[in-house]
Structure formats: C-alpha cells, structure tokens
Amino acid sequence: MNKILPLAVAMGMLAVPCAQAAPETAVNTSFDNTSYSTHSSQFSTAEAKRDLAYKLSGQYKQLAPLLHQQIDQYQLNAPLKTLKRSKRSAAFARNMMETDMVLRDKKGITDYTNEIMELRLADPQMLARWQAGQSPLFAWEPDGNDEDWQYIEAYDVDGNIHLLDVYEAPDRPVLVVDTNSREELKAGIKAMNDEIKRLQGEQPEAAPAPRAMAMTMDAATPSISTTVLKKIRLKDDHEPWISGKAEIYAIVTGVNPSRDEPVLDIVDMPYLDYSETDYSPEQIMIYWDRYRWSAADVLLMEKDDGTNYKELASTLLDVAKAALSAYPDPEVKAYAIIPELTNKVLAAIPDSWMTNDDDFVDVYYTIRQGKRYKDRQGANNNAQATFAPLTIDPTK
Hints:
Blueprint: E1 10-11, E2 14-15, E3 24-27, H1 45-70, E4 77-79, H2 80-84, H3 90-107, E5 117-121, H4 127-131, E6 137-139, E7 152-155, E8 161-164, E9 174-179, H5 181-199, H6 210-216, E10 224-234, E11 248-255, E12 262-269, E13 283-287, E14 295-302, H7 309-325, H8 330-333, H9 337-348, E15 359-368, E16 373-377, E17 383-392
Parallel strand pairs: 6-9
Antiparallel strand pairs: 1-2, 3-8, 4-5, 5-9, 6-7, 7-8, 10-13, 10-17, 11-12, 11-14, 14-15, 16-17
Helix pairs in contact: 1-3, 5-7, 7-9
C-alpha cells in the first residue's frame, strides 16, 4: 500500500514529468466552483466534495479553532452535526448539509441515516504537525475505480491545487471532505437487506412479546445451527491513504430451503479496518436455517464511494435469480449451483453503480454446515480465515 507511483498529469497545458515524481506537486490554479450544482443531472460525488474542499480552503482560518477543538488523538473527524452547532461554520455547514442530502438520496439511504458528511484528518501521523500549526491541504476522493487514479488533488489555503501521490501520503496534514464510511455502510447494509426482502416479498418478522417468547422456550424449541467467523486476516484492504480505514462487508449466497430462489444476506464486518492484522470477531456469518443443502458461499467486499445500495441489491438479486433459473431442476446439481450464483453476483458488481466501484476482496466457496475450516485461504488468496460450527440452544 506504500507503492509510489509516478505523477503524469495533464491539466490544461501543464505536464508533470515522470522523472519528477513526488508525493506532492503544487499547481497554481483554482476551481471554478460557479459551474457546480448539487441539483445537476450530471451530479458527481467527487465534484460535490471538490466544491466543499474549495469552500473550506477559503474559510479555513475561520473554522480552524472549531476543528482543533473537535479533532484530536481520540477522534480524527469532525462530523456535520458538530459543524452545524457552531456559528463559525454556519455558511460552510449549510453547503455541506445540501451535499449531504443529495448524497444520501443518491446512495439510497435517506430513510436509514440522518447525515453522513464529515471532515477527516487523513492519517493519525499528521495530527502532531497539524496541531503544531502547519497549514493543511484540503482533499477529496476522485471519481472512478481507485486502481485507475493517477493522483489525489488537494487545495491549500490560497486556493492552489496540489497533486498528491495516490499511495504515499504527503508530509503535510490533509483534511479530507468525505462521508463517514462506517455510518454510510451501516445504513447501506440495512437498505440492501430490506430491499432484497421487499423484492422477494418477505415481511420483517415482528418480535414476540417477552412473555410470549418465554412461553415458547420449551423442550420443543429447536436449536439454531450457525457458522462463526473465528479469525480473519487480509493481505490487502484495497484502500489508498486518502480513503482511511477499510469498510468490509460480506455477501453470503445460497439457495432458499423452501423455494427455488437465491438467498443473499449482507453481513457487516465493522471491526475489519486494516490489512496485515489479525481479528478474532466470533461473528455469526451463516444461519443455516436460511439455506438449502447445508452449503453457502461468502463473498468479501470493500465499500467505496459511489454505491447506490438499493440499486446494488436489486442488481445482485436479479443476476442471482437469472443464474438459478437456468436450471429447471436445481436439485440435480444441488449445492454445486451455489458457486455459479456467486460468480454471477461477482461479475455484476463492477458495473452496477455510479463511481469508485466497490472492491472485490476475496471469496470463500462452499462453506459447509457443521464443518470447521482452520486458516483457510480465500480463492483470491487475499484473505485467511477460520470458520467453525456453533449450535445455539434455546434459553432454559
């Protein structure tokens, strides 16, 4: 993740030769923000953030005292709700609120969270220099797949653009105009699971009253069969420095036990922040009552910036249904069908939404009920995980 790429940039008549590659290159230019509108049919997530970064560069001296109160070694971000409470940041907060509303609508999560925008210090190692008074840069994530990024743009307090290396963070502090990835993904997973249930005609089950529940917990209450993720480690979390912590989630794929329809369960993995780090979550990944043939696949993904979660859920379900419908009698191939469903889902992902495609991390094919897998490598050789069966008995 510390690979240094040569900067080869065309901006007007400007060219930065490869031989001059460096983590930071200054360009005396400014952004014409008069052409940007959150209501444009050509709305771009990156341009929305770019506009905010430009405004932040001009208002930073006024906002700096508030940001220094909010950002410290315990919290590297200043959420929108904090900015809204201060008169110092009133003008900037209004602009951010407008962008926030548009982004939540574009991502299909308006009903699941009240706000997602924030300002974030890009790296903890920048904190000391920023607290000591070094002037920061103001950056945002570009559009498109991060594997295709050539550089990161950032403004300074004078409105000049700096071109930063994608993989090596600059020596100067960088404040990133961004969404809170954890809040966004949490809302997005709820939106995806709800949309899949809605499209398949499922209704959320109402929780029984405590007394009624207690009355049902008798000897006839069955145990719950699950598979637990005991340990996991990633080689590469697919995150450039500007993106901060990784936000990993899983798509568990299989076939419905009672009808010939696919099952897609979206599972949040909020602890899995960094590569080359062991995590022991003891997290339930699979509830076997939901799957036929005692087999399921687990697809690991990393959230990126352009996802519309409802559209994604619809797309994944459509391709899984199409794959399953290719077999008039699924029982003939039994659980061998499941990897084919997973591959169709994976193939659909890169072209399914607006910008900065979610990154494929790895996939575990054919996890079987009741079987333990110790330090199993994913098919992409990027994840190593231990899965174990767990039977949950009813409360006595």
